[in-house]
Amino acid sequence: MKASLRLPKNGRTIVVPQPSSRRFYGHGIPGLDPSKLGGKLVVIEGADGSGRSTQITRLVEWLEGCGHATVQVGLKRSTLVSEELEQAKRGNILSRTTLSLFYATDFADQIENVIIPSLRAGFIVIADRYIYTLMARDMARGADPGWLRNLYGMALVPDIVFYLNVPAEELVQRNFAKDYALDYWESGMDLGLSHDMFDSFIRYQAMIVDMFKKMQKTYGFTIVDASRSSDEINLELQKKIEAVMRGK
Ligand SMILES: Nc1ncnc2c1ncn2[C@@H]1O[C@H](COP(=O)(O)OP(=O)(O)OP(=O)(O)O)[C@@H](O)[C@H]1O
Ligand SMILES: [Mg+2]
Prior knowledge:
Number of helices: 8
CATH architecture: 3-Layer(aba) Sandwich
Order of helices and strands: EEEHEHHEHHEHHEH
Strand content: 5-15%
Oligomer: single chain
Shape: globular
Radius of gyration: 18 Å
Strand order of the largest sheet: 4-5-3-6-7
Structural class: alpha/beta
CATH topology: Rossmann fold
Helix content: 40-55%
Low-confidence stretches: none
Bound molecules: adenosine-5'-triphosphate, magnesium ion
CATH class: Alpha Beta
Largest sheet: 5 strands, parallel
Distance between the termini: 15 Å
Number of strands: 7
C-alpha cells in the first residue's frame, strides 16, 4: 500500500495507515483474530482536567481534515451498562470488586462492539482513557495486579498510549476553572484519605501517578508534558501519531 498521498483540495498529505501486527494483552475475545484488524488505536490517558478532551477534539479535526475516518471511545460509554454504572457511582453502594467488574463490563462491550468493528473498517479509534486508568484506580484500592492483568486480558494492545502529565496543583486549578468543583471519585474520597477534598485530591492523584509509574515498564506509555500550551501539546501528538501511521 502506498504510504502517503497528497489531497488535491487542500494540499494536505494523507499518511495511509500501514498495517501493523496487532494482539491482545491476554486471552482476548474468543473467535476473534486480531491480526486481521487494520486502522489504528490511539489512547489518551491522563488525570481529570489534564486536557484529554481538548486534545482529542483537535486531533479529530486534524485527522478528519487529512481524510481519515475517526471514532471516539471512552470509559462509561457502552450502550450495555453505562447508565447503570453512573447510577452505581452516584449511590456508592457497590463493593469495590463489583464496581471494578462493572467498569470492566463497560470496557469489554466497547472493545467488542465499537473498537474492533471500527478497526476492521480501517478507522482511527481515539480512546479517552483505557484499561490503565481502570487498573490504576483499582490498584489504589488494593486490587491484586495479577487479577487485574487477567481481567483486562481481553483488551487490544493500542498502537500508542499518550499519558498527559500535569502537576496535581495545576490540575486542581484547571478543574476548578472548568466546573468550580472537584469530583468525589477522582478525589478518592471513598478511600478516606482526608476529610478535606483538596487534600484528598492531591493525595489520591499522587497515588494514581505512582500506579502509572509502576505500569510504565509493562505498558510503555509515551509521557507528554501537558502543562505546556494546547498548541505545543497537539503538535507533539500529531507528529507521534503520524509516525505510528507510517508504521514506525
Ligand atoms: N494545555 C492547557 N493549558 C491550560 N489549560 C488547559 C490546557 N488544556 C486544557 N485546559 C483547560 O483545562 C480544563 C480541562 O480540560 P479538558 O476538559 O480538556 O480536560 P479533560 O482531561 O478532558 O478533563 P475531564 O477529566 O474532566 O474530562 C479546561 O477548562 C481546559 O480549557
Ligand atoms: Mg474530558
